Amino acid sequence: MASTRERIVTATAELFRRNGYTGTGLKQIVGRAEAPFGSLYHFFPGGKKQLGAEVIREAGLPYAALFDIYIASADDLVAGIEQAFAGAGETLVETDYADACPIATVALEVASTDDGLRRATAEVFEAWLATGTEACSTFGLSREAARALAIATVTSLEGAFVLSRSLRSTEPLDAAGATVAARARELLSTSAGSARHPRG
Amino acid sequence: MASTRERIVTATAELFRRNGYTGTGLKQIVGRAEAPFGSLYHFFPGGKKQLGAEVIREAGLPYAALFDIYIASADDLVAGIEQAFAGAGETLVETDYADACPIATVALEVASTDDGLRRATAEVFEAWLATGTEACSTFGLSREAARALAIATVTSLEGAFVLSRSLRSTEPLDAAGATVAARARELLSTSAGSARHPRG
DNA sequence: TAAGTTCTAGATAGATCGCTCTAGTGAGAG
DNA sequence: CTCTCACTAGAGCGATCTATCTAGAACTTA
């Protein structure tokens, strides 16, 4: 069994993802984590805010690896993007439209209400964009084009999650994937650099 | 002064937009609306859920008109899309990154927790997509292409709002606008139909 | 005027919120 | 063995949550 601290973080991340920050209670967290209430304030003396900030970072940062899995290691940039959106759609359906972005709900909740938590979400998004820019720039795109495409990928995924979860349909995710793919083709065609994988 | 019911709806919409559903208390609502607590349950006997559902619809549906303003009445589809994203960015900056989508935060909060409220958000998004599809199809796009572009517009806006509010920057909104514009050009170029505005 | 309806007004209930507090447990160090 | 300290355990605090309740004001209609 994982350590108490780990169980608290994991349980909080799961509850934040589904119920958001204000929708998640501390009693609910320790209940799901099977942890004593006192342990929560032992590990997170700053209370809910400290726990929230650490969960945002610990749950969010690992998702940057998806850029490596889907984009950086793909033979074709456009195909990699399409597979990323398809994979997101599969996860969404498998979890009954519950597990999408780990921090999006919290990010919107705290954007105008708590600057400390907002900064935590901003750090995660910036980390994703940095990894995404790196992944995209290996295909011969300029730094600016790679960052633009990374932003397009993340924003389209986030927005598609909003609509797909609300409509309970992967149609928004499909349309968003096609849109980012179009942008990738456009940026590749105007790129002066050579594609990394013109032929394996 | 607006009617008590109207003041309650307006105040709730403003609070939902910034603080979300669970982050908004009924006392807070009647306080801002300058309405007696009893009136809230007089007009909304179903309590917070009924109020929430009606606010989602009443606050969300009018935004469909933005498709008419920015897209349907534009001379050029791509330019209209770019102006829509630029306008969203201006609003965001003017309101200190607070006023973005009126229902996005609530939509994510309730997607997996309350099916009645989820359906209310789904109705609003579908209404937007219907208006958006109508607006895009006047430029000679097929029904499928017009709907794909409408979805791309809404999802990109929603996702860009998430990142822009978190990062406190319009960069995501700019990149998202360029992405949807690229998709519009692609769909227009492969469209068999004739553009509505090839020349005034 | 009288009766009836709509809306205002807010006290209050019962549950839950984040958080603090004290007490106890258990493993490793000296 | 004893001391120490990290951790467990949960009762309970004041505040706030949604919701209910009664009472009265204001307006409409007979």
From TrEMBL, chains A, B:
GO terms for molecular function: DNA binding. Residues 2-62 form the HTH tetR-type domain. This is AcrR family transcriptional regulator. The keyword Isomerase does not apply. PANTHER family: HTH-TYPE TRANSCRIPTIONAL REGULATOR LMRA, TRANSCRIPTIONAL REGULATORY PROTEIN. Keywords: DNA-binding, Transcription, Transcription regulation. Residues 25-44 bind DNA. It comes from the Bacteria.
